[in-house]
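To the structural biology subgroup,

Please find below the input and predicted structure for ATP-binding cassette, subfamily B, which we are adding to the shared reference set this quarter. The sequence is reproduced verbatim from the submission form. If anyone notices a discrepancy with their own records, reply to this email rather than editing the shared folder directly, so we keep one authoritative version.
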Amino acid sequence: MKAASLAPLTQPQSFWGLALRGAHTLGWACATAILSAALSVAPFWFLYRIAIELFAPRPDLSEVRRLAAWALALLALRWALMAVSHVLAHKGAFAVQHRLRVGMARRLNEVPLSFFAGRGSGHLRRTLTDDVNNLEGFLAHMLPDAIASAAVPLAAMALLFAADWRLALASLLPLPLALVAQHVLMRRAAGRMREWSELQKRIADQVGEYVRGITVVKAYGRDARSFGELSGAVRGAVGWVEDYARDSSAGWVLFTGLLSANLVIVAPLGAWLHVQGTLDLPTYVLFLLVAPAVLLPLLRLTFALGEQLQRAESLARINDVLGTPALTQPAQPTIPDGRLDLDFADVRHRYGSRLALDGVSLRAEAGCLTALVGTSGSGKSTLARLVARLYEAESGHVRVGGMDVRDWPLDALLARIGIVFQEVFLFHGSVAENLRLARPDASDAELQAAARAARAHDFIQALPLGYDTPLGERGAGLSGGERQRLSIARALLKDAPILLLDEATASVDAENEALIQQALDTLCQGRTVLMIAHRLRTVMHADRIIVLDAGRVAGQGRHDELLRDCPAYQRLWRDHESARDWSLAADGRRDAEEAAP
Ligand SMILES: Nc1ncnc2c1ncn2[C@@H]1O[C@H](COP(=O)(O)OP(=O)(O)OP(=O)(O)O)[C@@H](O)[C@H]1O
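Predicted structure (tokenized):
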């Protein structure tokens, strides 16, 4: 296959568009399917000719043998063509699916993080796997099958009209009614397919949540049945199927009955014509054999159209991904070569209707440590995300090195930013592979140097296979503090001049806290650091502290200046100190209890 034909599909697609993408292979698959289907009628023609020969006053047995040989040969050709069609259809379908998946993966990499908010990870996983798999049904099965299903009645009708036009017309009599019944059935099904699809989505999301939260579920002695949302979703699906079966059963019986009803007309009419002497016996037998097969492929077509309604939902979800605009990139990219200060000028940002930043202006000087402090939800993480263009500011400017982040080539911008956030994501793969995410060409020595500086080398060495130890899902098997130190090692390896840090020592023990703090001190040296601080004492010596309050800057300066002039900082400091006293007192009580005999 040509390389060009494997180019990723990055734009929204229609079903026909998809079929055209695989036109070459799928076209041949359809052509062979049509031929194969048409040939399925051929043996009946030869049987008919054989019957005529046998009913002749002096049957020619050699002619009968010749006709039988033809019938067998065409039957064999039919099966061979069917196999070829099957192989080609799957080959074409998988190529198109592959291009779609690569296209979607690429687009997900280009869209802002806001795209993912409100769409569960389960939802996107389903779109990339199940929804794309669903399209296989259209490309590899429905396309050749539906075309072949249409070919069978046409070939059969041609055969019947060639034999006797009166009976052929009679065998078509139930067709108009059957088509009306089919139309009504499909319209009803289309209305309900969206409900079905919603139910499927709810079940998938709930199963995902149940599995992720299994520890909590077990800890409270619950099971799947008592997991209310999940059992509600499953009950909803069962109810839907019962309702649908009840509402549509009469329509289906009528429809399938009409499809085979032509025999009720053809059999007596043919017998009457035969008695009248205008229809010979072989032709009559031919109609008894072939007439019921003329309309039945419509049933297959109807099933196929029903499945197609579900696939339309799948394609809509795929197009939702492909149709999301990528982050804009500058037409003529330039890269500033001076100091990399971070500037926020009157920046506003909202998540949906919630205002997170409300006209923030501040500067984080190159080579300095700037701390962001504020109560929970005051907008600290949002500021950091805007620097890395994980989200786009609604208005105002976020500048790096004097240039708006939207004017930076995204790759160049991200190459200059190291990120250590609270939630550390580690992928399936070895410790070394997780570290090399930051710099794929790093040597083993560089890897170890970064791990040493991040105070991670010792615990990595103690793992069963050292740097080659495979990490489970999301780094399972490592403590929170260890994951943090791996993430710091990753940032050290990247060696980016700007560092976005979410100080994350709040939930780790004292030993880990001290190690992480040492690792962070090493990491911050000589870089432009924007650090989100939860413990004010860790940033008391920062070059500049910015106090955020409800999405606004409530004060900025050094620790002692803020303590003197900024009421919001004074409040934070008071709360921080009293929480610290409380935890020291609690520690003291625990120590005393442990020391007691
Ligand atoms: N992805 C999101 N979708 C919707 N709202 C969000 C999202 N992320 C943050 N918010 C909201 O925006 C506001 C600012 O959040 P942000 O995470 O920036 O605050 P923060 O100061 O970093 O909080 P914390 O210290 O608790 O991490 C909050 O009201 C928060 O609920």
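Summary notes: The radius of gyration is 36 Å. The pocket of adenosine-5'-triphosphate is lined by residues 117, 351, 354, 356, 374, 376-382 (CB under 6 Å).

Regards,
Lab coordination
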